[in-house]
Amino acid sequence: MPTGVHLRDARQQLFDAAEQVLLRDGPSGLTSRAVTDEAGCAKGVLHRHFDGFDGFLAALVLDRAAQLEARAAVLREAAGTGTVTGNLTAALTGLFGPVPLAIIPLITFRDELRTRLRQARPGGGIAILAEVTTAVSDYLADERDRGRIAADADIGSLTLSLVGGGHLLFADRDPGPPDAAAVDRFVTAATADAVRRRPV
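^ thats the sequence. predicted structure below, dont judge the formating
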């Protein structure tokens, strides 16, 4: 492996390489050697930019979690437009894309990574799921304020149902992710009571 390869934006290129390894080989295949091989650089490059491999993984997870904020903003902006189920179906499909789904088990099985994430920010130990949960909860609250969801709807429980059920729905991607109709059926069932009882 060449040792003199210059990375213009080393952090981002290492993140992108890690993402490729994670999607191809899963969490067990994500090693520092696999990442630097994928990036085409010496192993020392990673350690020059990060506090060890767990430090790198924590930075990767926080970077990818931050990217979900853009999807969350799109969902918040959709409040009051279209249909509640349509908005949530589109949002869950994006929020539970291949990369977030690959990162969740990585967090689950690496104790040191969870510790670093908790130290980095409140609720960081479940960074990806926390971002999805906040996005869905904020959206539901906005829709309740607009009268499109029942005023007495339990937003916390509804959010847990959508996020937990959505995660299970998307987690089994063999032979592929669920189609839009399957996601729509799930969201419709999960929100039916709250949406049906909304004030006229």
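The longest helix spans residues 52-78.
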